[in-house]
User: Fold this.
Amino acid sequence: MKTKSPFIKIDKISMWYPQKSKNLFMSIREERKWIKAVDQVSIELERGEILGVIGESGCGKSTLGKVLARLENPTNGDVYIDSVSTKELMKKDTKKFRRMVQIVFQNPFDTFTPRDTIEQILLRPLKIHGIGKTNAERREICIKALESGGLRPADEIMKRYPHELSGGQLQRISILRSMLFEPKFIIADEPVSMLDVSVRSEIINMLLTLSKEKNATVIFISHDIALTRYVSDKIAVMYLGKVVEYGDSDTIINNPKHPYTQALISNCSSIDPDEQREIIKIQGEPPTPVNPGPGCYFASRCFKASKECFQKYPAATEVSEGHIVACDRWY
Amino acid sequence: MNQLLEIKDFSVTYVNKSKKVYAVKNVNLKINKGDSLGIVGESGSGKSTLAMALLRLLPEKNTQITGKANFIGKDLVQLNQKELKNIRWNELAVVFQKSMNALSPVHRIGPQIEDIYRVHKPNASKEEIFSRITYLLRLVNLSERVYTLYPHELSGGMLQRVSIAISLVHNPKLLIMDEATTALDVVTQGQILDEIVKMEQTLDVTRIMITHDISVVAASCNKIAVMYAGEFMEIGYVKDVLKNPKHPYTRGLLSSFPSLKGEKLKLTGISGYLPNLSVKQEGCIFAPRCQHATEKCKQEKPLGVEMNENTVWCHLYSSGGELINEDQKPVYKD
Amino acid sequence: SGTSTETGGKESKSDKVLIVRSGGDPMSFNPDTIADDNAYAIVQNIFNRLVKLDASKQIIPDLAKDWEVSDDGLAITFHLKDNAKWHDGKPVTSKDVKYTFDTIKENKTYYFNSRLDIVNSIEVPDDHTVVFKLNDPDVSFIADLGWYATFILPEHVLNNGQSWEDNPASKEPIGSGPFKFSEFKQGVNISLIPNKDYHDGEPKLDKLVFSIIPDEQTAIQALINGEIDVYENVPSSSVDQMKANGKIRMALNEYPSPARIIFNLKNETLADVHLRKAIATAINKEEISKKVYNGVQVPEYSMYPSLIDWAANTEEVSPQFNIVEAKKILENAGYKKDANGFYVTGITLDVFEGSGYPDMANLMKATLAEAGIGIELKVSEFNAWNQKVSVERDFMIEMQGGFMGPDPAALAKRYGTGVGSNYGEYSNPKFDELTAKGAATGDQEMRAQYYKEAQTLLAEDLPFVPIVTYAGYDANNAAYVNLPIDGAGKWGWQEYTYTDIQ
Amino acid sequence: MKKYVTRRVFMGLLTIFVVFTINFIIIRLAPGDPISTIMGKDNDDPILRTALEEKYGFDKPMITQYAIYLKNALTGDLGISIIYNKEVMAMITERIVPTLLLVLTAAILAVIIGTLMGMYAAKNEGSKIDVIFSGAAYIFNSMPAFWLGLILIIIFSSVLGLLPSYGMINTRDAHTGFDYILDVIVHMVLPVCTLVLVEIPIYFRIAKSSILQVTNEDFIVTLRATGMSERKIFNKYILRNAILPTITIFGISLAYLITGVALIETVFAWPGTGSLMLTAINQRDYPTLMGIYLIMSISVAVVMVLVDIVYATFDPRIRF
Amino acid sequence: MLSVKKNTYATFKVINGDIQLKLGVFGILFLLLVGILSPILAPLDPYHYGQDILNGLGVNGHLLGTNHLGQDVFSMIIYGVRTSLMVAVISALISAVLGILIGGIAGYFGGKLDLIVSECINAFMMVPTFFLILLVIALFDNSITNVMIVIGLTTWPSNAKLIRAQALSLRERTFVKSAITMGESKTQILFKYIIPNGIFPVLANTTIGMSNAILTEAGLSFLGLGDPNVISWGQMIFMGKQYITSAWWIATFAGVAIVLTVTVFYLLGDGLNHVLNPKHSNGKGGE
Ligand SMILES: Nc1ncnc2c1ncn2[C@@H]1O[C@H](COP(=O)(O)OP(=O)(O)OP(=O)(O)O)[C@@H](O)[C@H]1O
Ligand SMILES: Nc1ncnc2c1ncn2[C@@H]1O[C@H](COP(=O)(O)OP(=O)(O)OP(=O)(O)O)[C@@H](O)[C@H]1O
Ligand SMILES: [Mg+2]
Ligand SMILES: [Mg+2]
Assistant:
């Protein structure tokens, strides 16, 4: 379609975990069962774009994040950044990959080892990657970064241990540390869900500003659909490891086509008490991602499901420019 | 008036080793029959402490409770164990957040509910209990199949529903739900909230909903109380408070929630961090983070200012409820 | 009657039951396959030998009423008692004797087998006469017939094509002794009942029980509590306490088995006789005797156990304790003190656990250190020690005990050139010659002469140093009389035929 | 559940096999052999030694010996004791009964008494009795059992003369029938007391701490909120949940006891496997040693597996 | 008033909670001191065989009497501290290092390796250890070094199990994940993040292991399998056993010394567990 290859190309990436068999010996005989945490996800992103990923708990959002950051090796598929295969890159130059791709985690209280001071925590990665020549130089870099993030007085904060700082401060440090590498691709996995509501906005705004500054591409994973809409340009809706709908964030929120997206958004309450809620009920609990299929994974809970839905996984359809739905009955 | 619960000058202090934590400080609150009150506040603001103290479930050895809590003519603070036993579950029931641990893992669900039912109706027949429970289970959208299952065989959403059903076995007058839907995902939460609202209409219970998510309150309550660092900032009808928040804290809080639809407004939030609850602080507790704070705010605790049926604890307003200084109209800088 | 049927229910209190402590389970009830200390006390009461040892470890008649040695020393003739019967009523004849020793001679794995190498043939002129034809003269052979694994076994029971070990008859032994086998409870006890037809008269007891109590302390408690009656060789530490107990009769029982240290003469350091002499001089035997054995086992200086007094040389003996002298010996021999005041270091002493040996070794280590001789102790469990010392011969000095009676011929078996038990590999042709002469002579005085001379050689060469004698008190319930210990010259050691309640 | 049990049994078998092999190697590598014992203390005849080695097959390569032994063991034939010339299996069966009698009685008494004490202490946490119990638990937990046994013998047997000091039955008066049982019980008192005293603290502590822990669980708070009586909460909910760690500990300590009781058996001259083992070690009675070890491993594995299964029936979360 | 009573109760509980650790720490310090200062504290050389045999308490200036060889019991008890501490520390060290490495590697690297190792650990947990130790010590050399090594080699599984569980949960912790994204290597992570953060339960377990080591050594000595070249309490009991009625002090005080020492280690272990148990350190981040 497009002539120019996209900046980031997630190409049919899958992460299947073997169903845990606790027995070494029996696992050999048993038929392998797979938890398809992420199943053939393909997304293309441009430089500086922000993609929001939403979906129920357990649908594979975090796994997708981990696979993209190569914290887990995907079972299948690859990611290309500027047409460079990250799989190859990982093999050849792991450190370079690490500098290119960074991830911000959900729980700031747990992002740093409790035994080191912030200074040690910040200096280590710089040393590993050979940024700055002397420790003094590296310290300078860190102090500058902290102050730019509003953490003042920086050298006082550097002396503290993680547990002596608040969640908001820690999350800022976490983001700032990731930015030290000037990454091209940032994955933010629910970066504010553990934080007090009142400090969330500042963190979000900081993340947005920094990534704009560095022109980095961001994947923003969240439970909070309203927040995702606020943050992102594009939204991908996941269900049991599959992306079921993808498009501009406003399109997805205002005009969802996939029955699951429709249910999700209708169930999402707003702070506006006047808003008329008309929730779409879907039956049952989300099934486990153990050997799902063969039909549409959502079919068993879908209010629109027909017989065919149970037989073949629906193909992705572009219903309007850049709005893709994996449903045969989206109309 | 059909007042159900009135809390006056209610304080809860944790005494741990040499350290004291003033978790709830001199709060006042009234709840009428049929109300559904949402208490919102950030983590650590004392919401759960308040609820647990009302239920008298805090370990007596390291907590101090003072003040009054009149509940259907009795002061919950002063009740002895026997009186408490009679009130519990019959009149006052609770649903906790951690539904995963809300039931004994080694007993089947049905017998556990039967035991709870028999606490107040020791002679109830099995059939009677069974019919009551299946009725309640259906009310929260569960099949009677769960009766014979163990807790670990249910999902979080189902357990939460079971907990809700259990809380209703004796038709309590007041039901406290502490973060009862927080751990659930959007779809399940939406559905359960919907079920709660409907069920309430059938069963006629008064409900206190504790949460940090204002949208939950917006969707399921008619009144809201905003709590900050152990104190109430603002109490009133959901419609008034959310549409027209008076307290600077409430405003800041609301501006931290982006809206799902409509215009994308810039999120602002509140700068600064929660105060240390181990230190007793003079003046308005929010003053250190408040951009309108005056010297007075730092020295004097604000008294509740009644406006219509809402109450605001803020020095910005006169006792009549007007802004004392129009310039100080709480707006937030961009 | 005669089989081992219980009388049912509780036995009447008036029954005379004697309970003897046993240190462990017997390995087998066939007394001739292996040498087993735990079984030894028991089988002596079930079987007879040609001759036996009395409480003073002298040879006395058993099945043989008398015996004679031919002039050339190549034939020994035993005359059997004619009224001896097996427990099943059949008479004991010389054929049984021949069968027994012939079988042992055929089986290399039987304990007495190699000792029978000296026997050319066994002849039975009549039912009550046995003649051993020897290849070489050896009078000590008679004494050996009174030791382990020489019990006469019934041919008519055992000669059924099966080996003794696998023979079911070995599990329920039939002997000719004063008691019959009744019951064996593994780990608990062995019960014997009296043989009413015993040729030396019916035993006085109604029941003889060997109760298995491995732990010494427990056994002492049991004796004090009256739960057992006989405890042979009580630990010396309890002697005083038991002597003070009116219900217990204590009797000293001595054995010709002195504790000794043996030098490995293949070791360069120890090949020097001066060093050996110095070591021998620096051992405080008095202290050891007093502290470790409470004075029960007394210092031994003779190179042959002084208990066998006719054969022991009490003039030419191992040196007296004298630290100054020991140092002088070393100085004179050219040894030099090192910085810590030691003339010699790095000598190891291998000791096995038990019998107070580690204590003894510790005391020796202390006095040797005073004399400037550095010793390191190596204590192992007996079997490991045995492997190291006797099989691998990997030691410098070792400490051991071991029976050296009742005949001084034992000297040759311990220190003769190339002999199996000569761990230190001592070799002195003169000594070999003297002991050979001693064995070939029937005349006791002559023999004493030869052996005393041999001991003089030992005292000079010091291939070993005797430390203390072996003796122990037998603690017995005072209510019983005619216990084995009382039988010197009259009945066998560990034999209960005449035991009775006062 | 079935799968679970199979898995556990399989693991148990594997363990036994591995342990068995290690054991074979250790025993065979050790210096000394049974031949010395058979030959007697004062015998060093090399011809006799070779003859005996041939007879028992020790001249064969170790691998061959192992293979032969393994093959026989699989068919239930543990061989014949070299020293006692008796079926190892028969010897062990004879001895294992007293050991089990001692161990099981002690373990069951200890678990009951200890748990009751723990329950009491947990209910009255911080009370004088709790402090006394806890203090005593530390002391007895730290006590070498053999030492305690000695002290008990001195007090109750020597000084007071109340109880027999050794063995399982009175040798002098051989009892039968009911008297026999009574006699055995009297003899069991001291060894059982020793074991019980050192085992109680284990159950006391685990019971107390798990009760205290369960008491803080959310579901207990919920049950309190329903107004259910503390008694019922305790008896039905706290206990049932708090018993789980006790089951596990019971298994572990029972397994430990089965093998660790050797010391006590020595002190009290108890005719069990422990003393048999010690003698077998000293005499290097290979078949007996291997047999005991095998049987012990099997007993331990069986206990562990049984306990796991019991645990699974108590805890529905285990069944998968 | 009511609250006063509550207050004292709370204080009592806290002290009760801490008192174990306090007693444990002071106890260990005391033992260490005694161990270091043995030559100064002991009135006599315990390896000296004096003329006073089986003296009673206080006789001839022997505070706790003498044994049959004329050694001063009090001095022996004092020197015995060294042996006990040495056995405790070295065997626990071996056990801890082995356990931490094996468990840490298995837990952190996971996968098939972990399956194999954890099955091995499970199997090892089923091994009757005392029996094994006894066997090895009886059959091979019973030097104190061997005793320590064998105890260490047979007790690591519990440590491995603990650290493996820690590693399993730590490797899912955010700070480990974030260390990976910072480009740290696997070994760096194992030694910098996993082991230091997961070591506390092992520490507490190790003190318990130390008490068990002391008891095991005593048990071996009691069976006559102790090292005669050093003075140990277990051996004193073994030796004193034959004098238990006539010279009760030999075995009795050694037994008391064992009980006290082992108790101190238990107290320390419990105290550590107590303090490290998250349930006791309430209060969220911040403050
Ligand atoms: N290491 C793993 N091994 C096996 N299964 C896993 C593993 N990690 C994740 N899963 C499974 O993969 C699925 C997706 O998990 P994931 O954490 O990505 O969900 P999520 O969308 O991030 O959920 P949440 O919103 O709760 O964070 C889940 O069913 C989970 O159980
Ligand atoms: N047992 C306790 N001892 C001491 N302080 C406590 C205890 N429990 C809670 N606190 C403190 O009391 C304050 C109020 O806690 P509480 O749990 O009531 O807050 P919350 O509003 O329910 O928060 P969340 O939204 O996180 O549930 C917090 O600062 C907390 O740290
Ligand atoms: Mg996630
Ligand atoms: Mg809460």
